[in-house]
Amino acid sequence: xxxxxxxxxxxxxxxxxxxxxxxxxxVLAPMSGVTDLPFRELAWRFGAGLxxxxxxxxxxxxxxxxxSWARIRNRGIDPHMVQLAGRDAHWMAEAARLxxxxxxxxxxINMGCPAKKVIGGYSGSALMREPDHALxxxxxxxxxxxxxxxxxxxxxxDHDSLNAPDIAVRAENAGVQLITVHGxxxxxxxxxxxxWDAIRAVxxxxxxxxxxxxxxxxVEDAVxxxxxxxxxxxxxxxxxxxxxxxPAVLGGACEEPRGAERAHxxxxxxxxxxxxxxxxxxxxxxxxxxxxYVERYAPxxxxxxxxxxxxxxxxxxxxxxxxxxxxxxxxxxxxxxxAA
Length: 340
Fold this sequence. Notes:
Blueprint lengths: L14 E3 L2 E3 L3 E3 L8 H10 L3 E2 L4 E2 H5 L3 H6 L9 E5 L3 H13 L4 E6 L4 H4 L11 H14 L4 E6 L9 H10 L4 E5 L17 H4 L6 E4 L5 H11 L3 E4 L9 H5 L8 H19 L1 H19 L5 H9 L3 H14 L12
Parallel strand pairs: 3-4, 3-11, 5-6, 6-7, 7-8, 8-9, 9-10, 10-11
Antiparallel strand pairs: 1-2
Helix pairs in contact: 1-11, 4-6, 11-12, 11-14, 12-13, 12-14
């Protein structure tokens, strides 16, 4: 603190979650279809304080689904944080045990995803409509493992039920060791502006660390959300799309890469995805990332050329052209951050 106000240095300090320590206070959000192992590895290498897996369906993991197991893979990221989603306490506990046995250092419970597919199964933010049921899932998960358990939620289902503070208190009493709150309700999806001030109501009710999430793009945003919410750390989601180094930049762990360096990273990311997912599935997974890199750093690229990049099955062509494009452009285009 300086003169009663947060300064950037606060973002670079460690933060304890139970027996685990974040090396700084900027966390990469879990994002389905985005934070696969290659993306997390890059974000971690640059210096993100913590990275979180894509949301993993608890029953599918316990049922040995290959996609779920791929989502919890880890290579050298420490601590390794796995986010689980589910509706059934039994499967949440089983999945938590499996994740812990396979290297998870922290288990996060998803109570914030607003996607229709997720809430249609009464998981994600739908759990905020049933606090008693949500608590049973939390208790089952906490009791199943020895590693810290955390919860990510929204402010509430809608503005008539802003129950995040009450749920957070109950979660803390059940043994949860950190709470993350996105400053929107489920019914807002990603519309409007995240309410950073509303997160403070959670801060005032709990003693465990609090992470604030929603619309954090710049260092100034990160400092301001901490000041207004009273949170201990920030989480960034879509502001990291097309720049996996971004959480580390906000946390003071690295500088924004430029020109040739940025182009090299993007091509490395592209190759990593092909290696991880395979040459066919990797192309499909990589296209969205190629699009984000181009959108941020070469927004004036002609539509036909962008379409050629996005649809090509020639990985050498895509890698070469991506390197050329990103080596020239230097001014990033800001994109609204909308982490779930």
